[in-house]
Amino acid sequence: MITKSQRYREILAVLARHGIGTVDDEFIKHESGDRARAEHLRRACEELGTMFVKLGQILSTRGDLLPDAYRAELAKLQDEIAPVPASAIAQIIREDLGAPPEELFAFFDSEPLGSASIGQVHAARRFDGREVVLKVRKPGVDELVRIDLDILARLIDEWSPRFPILTQYDARGLLREFSDALLAELDYGHEAANVKFFRDFFANEHGFTIPEVIEKYSKNRVLTEERVKGRKASDVADVPKRRRAVISRRIARFVLEPAFEHGMFYADPHPGNLLLEDDGSLSVIDFGKIGRLTPAARRRAADLFIAIARCDGQRLADRLIEITAPEHPVDRALISREIDRVLELYVDVSLEKPQFGDAIGEVLQLVRRHGLLLPGTLVLFFKALAMCEGVVQSIDPDSSFADYLQPMLSEADLPGICWS
User: N or C: which terminal CB in the chain sees fewer CB atoms within 10 Å?
Assistant: First the structure.
């Protein structure tokens, strides 16, 4: 295993080769040369591996932090990478579960179903005939991620005097948020608890399938779940229109209801994680990325959405300034005018289908232009809702995400919100 000092030197060498940390303090702020610099940043993340790839992916969603050129380039980062040998996976299973896979299962497929930077997934069949999937964390990943997080914190401290933008955007606080989320993703026990929460939440609901965690075969670096099958939720070309509307509503409910009722939201609702079974039921897989909203954060999110739905630019501007609590003077009148323009474009009251995702994306860019900073958990929630809206409308173009969102805002028990 590489030592922290060796890894520190390796990281500095890669960053220096791509001109990161060696330029003046206008590195991010200037628009000129953004494309080239963004490409170097993306390539550096790819070279440095898991933690940096994850960081780049998160930053690609932060319109409140980075210009378009950087976010577009970082969005190219892929988490699918070459698998580790089956023998290495078998060794982890042996260490954590007490026996090799060929003794634990009637069949274990050595060819992975998928391989990401943290772990890879293998299909298996129990002796009772039940099909399962095993998510196995790759060897050394946990240790390297923790080393990289420590080094990144050190770099922020070392570079802050030369790069004022790091202090302006509270890079240390952003790193804490990112670190908490990434370490939770590494913890398969944490993911198992997420699965249980959503299974319990939808236990009495028809049309939802959440895979059961097989506790006997889940420990530390191994998570075993029943295997659910289906096609991508977006693959609905032959599905009748009426059933499409039902599917869209289930997806919206899955993301929205736990969020506003309990502050837990599914943060990765892309089509690959949302599967349709033959009977039209919605199956959801991969619960590694779950967000949490405090009651205060839920209240703030609801208030922002109410302002958007009502095309109330003044209210939205007031709430944004209240949430971001800027320490520098802001031009409230200019922010209100810019918000009015966004609402006219995407959420005009004359439109039948307000475009919440596009509106939120514009608002995040407005936040960046004015040097404001939103809590990361709210940005993650906004991103999840934008993804959900995209999936819902691809399935049922006649649907309006506002039709799903507004009733939940009204029903949510969130003190402090004026519904009038």
Answer: C
**Alpha-carbon distances of 388 from 221, 253, 256, 334, 373, rounded to whole Å:** 30, 10, 9, 31, 24
Tokens of 293: 């909203």
Q: What is the spatial distance between Cα 328 and Cα 263, in angstroms, rounded to a whole number?
A: 31
Residues 268 and 237 occupy one common structural domain? yes
Alpha helix segments (H runs only) across 215-312: 241-262, 295-309
Specify whether 239 is located in the same domain as 221: no
HSE, CB side, 13 Å, CA atoms: give it for residue 414: 25
Same-domain status, 182 and 237: no
In a domain, 147, yes or no: no
Q: 292, 286, 290: which is closest to 271 by C-alpha?
A: 286
Quote the CA–CA distance of 293 and 304 in Å, as a whole number: 14
Contact 393, 358 (CB under 8 A): no
Give pTM, 2 decimals. 0.86
- C-alpha count within 13 angstroms, C-beta hemisphere, residue 312: 14
70 near 36, Cβ under 8 Å?
A: no
* 100 and 135 inside one domain: yes
Where in the sequence is the domain holding 31, given as residue range(s)? Answer: 1-78
CA–CA separation, 305 and 307 (whole Å) = 5
Say yes or no: 8 and 67 in one domain.
yes
Q: Please state, in angstroms and rounded to a whole number, the distance separating the CA atoms of residues 120 and 84.
A: 8
β 282-284/208-209 pair status: parallel
55 & 199 share domain: no
Q: Could you tell me the CA-to-CA distances from 165 to 7, 161, 323 in Å, in that order?
A: 25, 9, 20
